[in-house]
């Protein structure tokens, strides 16, 4: 009897685990979508344009004339990233208009000017907010009053714009860094900072104390309903990105605007961060049972000897930033993406060459698995990101950028996948491989900080890519036994992710 049961268990247990993963993944996805779509219930969402700037208008069904709130995203962001604030304020009865800055999201006009000068790029982005404000105030249902809300890069833009545009009654600056504010301007300034944003918290307190040297975090200085006020608050347990989904931050923004406009709002706070995590987790979990529908490949490739792994990772990590310090890499109309494309290419080719010289076999390329992985990452997970998190579907102007980055991203991720055996390597090996690559980017920034500063902002995107898309790629690699399929597929996804994230930019 025991001899009969054991083989049967070996056959059925994997199937049961796959079924459980499929059901769990579907449940996570459905629960996340249900919550995210529920947050939109009762709000009419309309897509418009002013010039080349794409707008999204949020208005509660049945709302009467109300103040307008113009919402601006941060560097490398888009309208979708600010939707929790847009929905919270729309449910509170405000007419909300969010938009994609020049060079970001689906805005086809590149950023321009000198990013290091106030009278350069900053002035151009201020002018864009002015045009959006004009359009927003002309919408049906706008009562003539307007406020600005912005995150990170946009915090400086909206502070400066509010100081020169007398129509702006209130400013909500999230993760603010700006040296423009004075003791009395901009009028009715609320500064929201995440508890883990240590330096920005200090700067927020400094700006608060311009109005009252004795003020502390959480204090309100002045009278926002009267002559004008200022407040600095901290959202607990969040950092630079998760502050966009903090219920505390969302509630503070709504309550501040209510005080300024003498309103008493009701409605839900759209803290959608948990639902987004649930949806993305569901898409990742589903990757395992779906990968098992692919043709099963050969057994796992042999582990790479430690000496070979060390040479293939450490040498490119040291050599690439040093060599590229001497190379002109400005050839794409995007900020530092051209450098990153070349860095990926040199790093990847060096690593592949060193692996091959040490006798590591690359194996066959399973084209169907490659295309399946790329399609699932770009259109499956990417589709969810585009609707609920940030712009992921490119406009036509970004397609050549994605193609150029792919020339570097594919060999780099191919080397990564071969080194970690298509997702079968021990965790410490995978961490070693990817830490070496990130260290090479850090070294590049250290060698040319002024030129490559914006790479520091993109590094968290790459870390997130390794975590989320790396898990999906590992499922495909373990099923097919083809590190090359995983590497090429992940390279295409990485090129797409970077190509839609980097701001388009033309100097002058």
UniProtKB/TrEMBL annotation:
InterPro entries: AB_hydrolase_fold, FrsA_esterase, Hydrolase_4. The keyword Nucleotide-binding does not apply. GO terms for molecular function: hydrolase activity. The chain crosses the membrane at residues 269-294, 306-327, 339-358, 365-385, 391-414, 426-447, 453-476, 488-506. Residues 65-175 form the Serine aminopeptidase S33 domain. It comes from the Bacteria. Keywords: Hydrolase, Membrane, Transmembrane, Transmembrane helix. PANTHER family: DIENELACTONE HYDROLASE DOMAIN-CONTAINING PROTEIN-RELATED, POLYKETIDE TRANSFERASE AF380. This is Alpha/beta hydrolase. It comes from Bradyrhizobium ontarionense.
């Amino acid at each position: 009897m025991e001899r009969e049961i054991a083989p049967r268990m070996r056959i059925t247990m994997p199937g049961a685990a796959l079924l459980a993963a499929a059901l769990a993944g579907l449940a996570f996805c459905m629960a996340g979508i249900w919550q995210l779509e529920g947050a939109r219930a009762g709000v009419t969402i309309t897509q418009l344009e002013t010039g080349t700037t794409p707008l999204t208008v949020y208005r509660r069904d049945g709302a009467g004339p109300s103040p307008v709130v113009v919402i601006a995203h941060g560097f490398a962001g888009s309208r979708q990233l600010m939707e929790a604030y847009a929905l919270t304020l729309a449910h509170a009865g405000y007419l909300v208009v969010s938009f994609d800055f020049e060079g970001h999201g689906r805005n086809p006009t590149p950023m321009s000017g000198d990013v290091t000068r106030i009278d350069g790029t900053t002035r151009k982005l201020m002018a864009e907010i002015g045009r959006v404000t004009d359009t927003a105030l002309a919408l049906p249902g706008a009562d003539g009053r307007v406020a600005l809300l912005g995150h990170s890069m946009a915090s400086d833009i909206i502070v400066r714009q509010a100081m020169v545009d007398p129509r702006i009654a209130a400013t909500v600056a999230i993760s603010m860094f700006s040296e423009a504010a004075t003791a009395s301007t901009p009028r009715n300034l609320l500064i929201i900072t995440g508890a883990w944003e240590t330096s920005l918290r200090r700067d927020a307190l400094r700006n608060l104390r311009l109005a009252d040297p004795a003020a502390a975090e959480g204090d309100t200085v002045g009278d926002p309903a009267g002559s004008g006020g200022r407040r600095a608050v901290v959202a607990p347990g969040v950092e630079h990105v998760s502050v966009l989904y903090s219920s505390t931050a969302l509630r503070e923004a709504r309550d501040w605007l209510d005080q300024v406009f003498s309103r008493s709002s009701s409605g839900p706070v759209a803290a959608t961060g948990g639902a987004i995590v649930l949806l993305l987790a569901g898409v990742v979990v589903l990757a395992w049972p779906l990968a098992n529908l692919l043709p099963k490949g050969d057994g796992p490739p042999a582990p790479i000897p430690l000496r070979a792994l060390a040479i293939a990772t450490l040498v490119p990590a040291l050599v690439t930033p040093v060599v590229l310090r001497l190379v002109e890499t400005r050839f794409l109309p995007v900020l530092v993406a051209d450098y990153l494309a070349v860095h990926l290419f040199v790093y990847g080719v060096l690593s592949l060459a060193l692996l091959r010289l040490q006798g590591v076999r690359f194996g066959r390329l399973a084209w169907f698995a490659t295309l399946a992985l790329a399609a699932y990452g770009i259109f499956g997970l990417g589709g969810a990101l585009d609707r609920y998190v940030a712009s992921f579907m490119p406009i036509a102007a970004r397609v050549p950028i994605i193609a150029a980055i792919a020339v570097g991203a594919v060999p780099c991720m191919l080397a990564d996948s071969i080194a970690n055996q298509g997702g079968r390597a021990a965790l410490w090996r995978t961490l070693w491989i990817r830490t070496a690559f990130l260290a090479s980017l850090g070294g590049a920034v250290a060698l040319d900080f002024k030129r490559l500063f914006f790479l520091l902002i993109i590094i968290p995107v790459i870390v997130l890519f390794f975590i989320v898309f790396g898990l999906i790629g590992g499922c495909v690699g373990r099923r097919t036994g083809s590190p090359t399929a995983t590497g090429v597929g992940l390279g295409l996804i990485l090129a797409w992710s970077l190509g839609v994230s980097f701001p388009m930019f033309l100097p002058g």
